[in-house]
Amino acid sequence: MGGAGPVARLGADPDRRRPVIHLLKRHPLPIVAHFRHSLVLTYAFPRETLEPLVPPGLELDVFGGLGFAAVALVETQALRPAGLPRVLGRDFFLVGYRIFVRHGSLRGLRILRSETDSLVVARLGNALTRYGWRRVGIRRRDEPPAYEVQTTSGLHVVADLRPGPLPEGSPFADEREARRFAGPLPYTFEHEPETGALVVVRGVRSRWKPQPVGIQVLRNDFVDELGGGSLANAFHVGGVDYRWERGRVLRAPVLTAA
Fold this sequence. Notes:
Structural class: mainly beta
Distance between the termini: 18 Å
Low-confidence stretches: 1-16, 252-258
Radius of gyration: 18 Å
CATH topology: Acetoacetate decarboxylase-like
């Protein structure tokens, strides 16, 4: 959650005559926020488990023959359209479920669903994106070094936010390898069924230096629903600013990074 080269070269959108609701779901506004906490758990799966979740125009991002899905738990502050003062922003908790994908040499994420404790955020998110927002109950406990999150949708994790080793049995040999699948990546992709195009949103972050942390997963229905995966890494970062650029439409068959 990359340079701006491939996105900057995108042409004008030829679908301006389509219904307004169709255009709104292309992430039409640049958005900024502050992440008080961002905890991302990445799971490894046999690639054939995740490939049915990859839409046309994208391919699964693999490592050692494995595909990867992530659960991101983000304590978000002052989310607002870029240019508005911080006081007009909204605080909420986000749980995002994603898979790692690529479009040519561009690496990114495809969001499967998003959960929040804010009804306003869920409604606006579904109006402006295709990220499958829904409101759920979320309880969190922040007693350093312990950080606990539990949702009514079937997720319960307890993290030790002190730097720690990779999970036992991780497919990654070291932290450097694991960081490539720690998220967020520079791009978020979504397939647009109405046109067959891809909508891409570029993320820009500051001071992003995540650390591997110890994690205890007490419940994760998302992973169970996929048939079970193995925990590959868990990274935490806090106190960072983040910006999502407005969505762009990809029409070239493959773009390469500048």
